[in-house]
Every structure is written in C-alpha cells, then in structure tokens.
Specification:
Largest sheet: 6 strands, parallel
Helix content: 25-40%
Number of helices: 13
Shape: elongated
Strand content: 5-15%
Oligomer: single chain
Distance between the termini: 139 Å
C-alpha cells in the first residue's frame, strides 16, 4: 500500500466544508432552552428584569411607594394639625421689680448729711437719688428712721409711726418717697415687730398696768421672778440672761436682745392688731414693702422650758454649761417657732388683700432670719399659704480665700435646690 492515511486531516477537511452561517441559535436558549415560570437562583439580568415586570411585583412595588408617601403625608398633616390646635408654649413669665432689682441698703445716720450737723438725714438721701439710680439700684432698703433713743442704731423703736427728729420730718419722708418713685425706684422700710424700746409708750403703760383687764397688761412678755431669779436659763443674743427684773411691775420681762429692747407679746391680739396698723400706716404713705427684722425671735415656748447647751462644740467658751453666750446654746424654745411663719403669712395676706387686689400696687416682704436651710425655706410660705417673697440668703457673706469655685457652687446649689417650686432666690452681698 503506497502513502499514509491521516484520519485527523480528513476530519478537519470535512469540518471546513460545513456552512456555519446557516446555523441560528436563540439567544434566550444559550444556557437553557426551557421557559421558566418562576424566578430561580442564579438567573441572569434579563430574566430578572422579565420577572420584575410581572403584575404581582409591579403592584407590590407600587403598594410600598404609596404606603411610604402616605405615611410621610400623614406625619406632616399631624404635625401641622397639632401645631395649630395645641396651646402655644407659655411665654417666659414677666418678672416683677423685686425679682430683677438690686436692693441697696441705706443707713440714714451715716449716708448723707444735708444740714451740717454731722449726721445723715432724709433730705441727704434725697439729694443722692440720682447717684443711686445711676449705679443701677432698683430699690432702696431704708434702715430704721423711727423715733428712737438710738441705743441699738434705731432698732429700739420708741414710736413706730414717727420719724426721729434728727433724720427730719414726716414731710421730708413723704417727699423722699415721691422722689424715689419719680425715678422709677422702690422704697423698702425696716419693720421691727419683735421688740420696742423700753422708752416706748406701750412699754411704759404695760409696766404700770396692775390688772389683766388693762389693754396693755400683756403687751410684753412678763413672768414672775421668785427670789429675783430668772424663770429659766434662756440666754439673750447679746449675752447674759434673757430676763430683766422690773422694779415698777415687780416682774421680769423678756428681752431677746438688749435689756432696753423688751419683747412684744405677739400672742396678744391687741399687739398683732397694733403691728398690722403700723404696716398700714407706712403702706398708705407709699412704701413699697418691708424687710422684717429679727422675725425668727418673735415667739417663744410658753412652757418656759430650759434650753440645752450645744453638743460637740469646739468653742472653748462653751465648755461651761452655765455660760451666757448665745452661740453656745440650742435655741429650740426661742427661735423659729411655728408662730413665726404664721405671722408672716398673716402680713402677706394683709398686703395682698388690702393693697394689691385693690389696685394699690404689689407690696414686697423679705425677712431676716437665721437657721438651717430647711428652716429658712419655711419663710417662703407653708401649707400652700404665701409667706415672704424671700428670706434673706446670707450664705455668700462669709466667702474667703478658702472658698473656691466648688465651695461657691455648693452654697448656691443648697439654696436653689432647697427653694419651694416657683420661688425666687436672692443673694446678700457686701459692697
């Protein structure tokens, strides 16, 4: 047999003779010529798009779109509706003058002399009103101007409705009030309900009264002193016994301060009525309010119980239990008794009912009282009855170099967190 037979060459020659152009392939059946009725894993883009255009998926998409926009529209309508029908937020409360003003204490005797006698007076204060106004002062707290023997800088009052002649006349006072108000400022007076001077007409009539039927018999706190001994161990603020034997009446009278400052008996309705009338007298002359002096001492325990010494004190002067220093004793029976808060409520009611609600202007009241934070806060009012606009806050008076930022923050926070809701804070500082 001549030559070699090559099978591969023969196969290639036959393949080359095929007309491939006549062969047509359906693009939709390149992978699989089956027509799937449901989506399947791994389908290509074209198949996915084909299934997504079915009525079911078109409807589902449309439903989601409608729900989305309907939700947003409902939320928008709700916001607009609530805004329209809901009460508007309350505007910030309008603060009264006593909540925004600097209250500046003026001691008349040393402030300004107008007549060259070396002592300050009411016309002298009047001459400096523009100066005080320019300082930003909104209210003047006037220390006592009452007629007085001046054994305690005017806090020993001889006549609660008179002016000490050295300070001027009642006409001078009326003019001062008018000039203060002309400058849109306010005047606050010291009111001293705890005691009077022993030179006062009230005390002279009380020490001379021999019958309980006498109106003045119990104007002051009187107690028998057997064997010339005090009824108990109470100690006065300025030291020594709180009792003074009176040879005219042959009894002891109570004095929480000086012997020349006998304590008024505020359990006696004649006395409280008298004090009410003192307030009215000055309010009718245009006074805008009062600082109530030493009010924490206004009532005592009438069981006359002995007070006990302070425990755990480090003051060496207090080691002797018979000492007569005020700071060495617990004043449980002579300070901040419940009657104190009741009388403050009474005077708040008087000023509101007889002046504010009759269109005569709002009358301000603050109190001088010392005690722990819980006790002090009671002066704002108790049992849903209003008391003072605020008790004096003395906590910043004793700042020194040892009281840094944390110390100041603590003092401020004690007052703010202790205040009853809706009340106003205050800060007493020295100029």
């Amino acid at each position: 047999m001549s030559g070699n037979y090559n099978l591969e060459e023969e196969h290639n020659a036959d393949y080359a003779k095929l007309d491939l152009s006549a062969v047509k392939i359906d693009e939709g059946q390149k992978m699989d010529n089956r027509d799937y009725a449901e989506p399947y894993a791994g389908m290509d883009k074209e198949t996915l798009l084909r299934f997504s255009q079915t009525p079911f998926w078109l409807g589902l998409r449309m439903a989601f779109i409608v729900i989305f926009w309907a939700g947003w529209l409902a939320l928008l309508v709700a916001v607009i509706g609530l805004t329209a029908i809901h009460p508007k937020c309350r505007p910030a409360p309008k603060l009264d003058w006593w909540q925004t003003s600097i209250i500046y204490q003026v001691y008349p005797r040393s402030f300004q002399d107008s007549n060259g006698d070396g002592l300050g007076d009411l016309p002298g204060i009047e001459s400096k009103l523009d100066y005080l106004k320019n300082l930003g002062i909104g209210a003047i707290w006037l220390s006592p101007i009452y007629d007085s023997p001046m054994r305690d800088f005017g806090y020993d009052v001889k006549n609660f409705t008179g002016v000490w002649p050295t300070f001027g006349t009642m006409e001078d006072f009326d003019r001062l009030v008018a000039e203060i108000h002309k400058r849109n400022m306010k005047l606050i007076m010291d009111f001293i309900p705890n005691h009077s001077s022993n030179d006062s007409e009230w005390f002279q009539k009380s020490r001379s009264a021999s019958s309980p039927n006498d109106k003045f018999y119990n104007y002051y706190v009187w107690k028998d002193c057997p064997n010339d001994q005090p009824p108990n161990n109470w100690v006065a603020v300025f030291g020594g016994s709180m009792w003074m034997n009176d040879s005219t009446r042959n009894q002891c009278y109570l004095h929480q301060f000086l012997e020349s400052q006998p304590d008024l008996n505020l359990l006696n309705p004649y006395v409280t009525d008298e004090l009410d009338n003192v307030l009215r007298f000055w309010l009718d002359r245009g006074v805008d309010g009062f600082r109530v002096d030493a009010i924490s001492h206004a009532y005592e325990d009438y069981n006359w119980q002995n007070e006990i010494p302070l425990a755990n004190t480090t003051n060496p002067m207090c080691m002797d239990t018979k000492n007569t220093l005020y700071e060495c004793w617990n004043h449980t029976y002579t300070a901040n008794l419940p009657g104190v808060f009741d009388i403050i409520n009474r005077w708040r009611y008087l000023m509101d009912e007889e002046y504010y609600r009759k269109g005569k202007g709002y009358k301000f009241m603050t109190t001088e009282a010392y005690g722990d934070i819980q006790t002090t806060m009671k002066y704002y009012g108790r049992f849903q009855s209003d008391g003072a606009n605020f008790p004096f806050n003395f906590r910043l008076l004793n700042l020194d170099r040892n009281c840094g930022g944390d110390c100041v923050h603590r003092l401020v926070d004690q007052w703010i967190s202790g205040m009853p809701p809706g009340k106003t804070a205050n800060w007493v500082v020295r100029c």
